[in-house]
Amino acid sequence: MIGGILVKVAFVFAVLSVAGYIRHHLKATDRSLLVGRLFFHGTVVMIAASAATLLYLILTHQFQYSYVWSYSSRALSTPLLISTFYAGQEGSFLLWALFTAVIGIFLLRHSSRVGYEAQVMSVFMGIELLLLVLLLVKNPFLYVWESFAEVGPGFIPADGRGLNPLLQNYWMVIHPQVLFSGFAAMAVPYSYAMAALLKRDYDHWYKAAMPWIAFGVFVLGLGIMMGGYWAWDPVENSSLVPWLFCVALIHTVLSQRRSGAFARTNLVLGLLCFVLVVYSTFLTRSGVLGDTSVHSFAEPGMAAYWLLIAMLIITVTAPVVLFVRRWKEIPRRPAKHSIYSREFALFLGASTLVFIAIFVIVGTSSPIITELLEGKKSAVDISYYATTVVPLGIALGLLMGLGQLLWWTRSERSALVRALLVPAGVALLSVPVMLYAGSSDPLLIVFVFAAAFALVVNLMTGWTIVKGNPKMAGGAVAHIGMAIMFLGFVSSSRFGGTETVSLPAGTPTPVLGYTLTYLGQRPTDDGKFKFDVRVEKDGHAITLSPIMFNSEYMQNVMRNPDIANLNDRDFYLAPLGLEETAASGGAPAREMLVAEASIKPFINLVWAGLIILLVGVAVTIVRRAGDVKVRGIRAGALRAGSSGDPDAEFVHEGSTDMRRDPEQSDSRSGEKKEETR
Question: For a tag on the chain, would you pick the N or C end, based on fewer CB atoms within 10 A?
């Protein structure tokens, strides 16, 4: 089939592109660079053509293809039909390869401008090559008779098996695409870190990579949160971990820009951004979490299992070998700052993020760990995450505020105490609020105080920066969003409620401060049933219609909740079963809906905080992309060992001192105080 041929051609082109770029790295010639570029673009075209072919086969119901039959059907709407493209192993690998190719188009231009093309693109195309190997084995273009021995050649099923009901959600049209874009973007910091090791340039690579690091944080963070309210599902967690490492990298990069420290740390973090994406893919696609996660592929096949292990080994081994060879020459500059400095706060903040990621990845990997140690898979209880993450969240909140009040290198303790008075005093007001709301958990009260402290400090400093130069406000805005999200997590989880209730038809029933009345059931056009429930409070009423149906696909009863998005809370109603009341006193038996109702107060704070956080990251992307352009980075400017000053090659023409970073200057006084200190 043409789709399979296109994948094979893309594989050959990728091999030739990698070879051309490696040749150019070893001995720069115009011909080798042309080969690398030419076959890179050829790879992009072949991957795009194969993806378009698969989409065409799905939309035109070509059920003679095993993948199309396995995940689509004529009954699906067009948006859900499109989502079947990446509902299975093969399609999701193709989607990942496609987004990697698209990002590569922009990366080629960027890396060429900063003198890193051969090194960055050889690594990046090596990653694309690994994805194509996965596609060669997990081929989405096999015929049904090639997948199922009992079916004769030429057989065309009348209809497809259909899409898993758990995936029949319109968020499926957007969420996986954004998530895989984030996975593809995480390959860029990895490629730049590898390129730094190849070029022996340890003091400049991160400057060129910084816009991409922020882009990865933006896209992967958006994809993670699109998954819905966080429930610590293992597959959700496995996407969170590389995101946390990438956020930590942003903070340690700021310190290296300032003092030249953390050269080794930043290389390791840059590499781990993608290594942990590969590990995430292994957890999701290998089937090892099939018994512990609703999102995991339970039966991927042994070929995919071992290929993902091989991909993980390769992405780990290659940088380790380079690290061993380069270790002694990587600069190790001693820290010259006090504990009362912004550098130290950034270090502590990055360390906190890394520790959170470690605890999450250990909990997520618990089925693998327990199987190795005890011979059986066992997932950790959700309380594990609260126990480990909440104390670290307190530290993170305090550091998000404290770091904005500190000067670079050193701060006077007396000045710091004075700067703390107002934000700490305002944040202390959260304590009586929590007590009044009925919370007596000391850990939770301190967590809210830390979030409030971070919010107040960053609002104050952010406003000062915006008045001076809005382009420098990305960090403060992102911290504001994170603090608001923290408050949303607490309010929605601690002050919410859940209750299981039986609702006889026509009988008003008090539930969680609302009055619920079951109105009856009605069929839908697709064979499902809606159960209408009127929800009333303070003279206002809405009708929720959760769905329940028998799924032939799952061989089980499926239940879809309905949600009322109110101004200050979300009200969830999930059907559990349908019963009949007993007839008594001459009254006939009545239908009764058993349902679970739950409230999440101020859940909108989570989504508002997310939007603000992403706005802050977007500002940082624009700012750092401008840095690369404005500071005149050109081919050859990033040569290793060119100067003892890590920023010397980035001096802008006509400027007397570009070594300070305005965005990192003391936010209380804008840019000017940095010059006078």
Answer: C
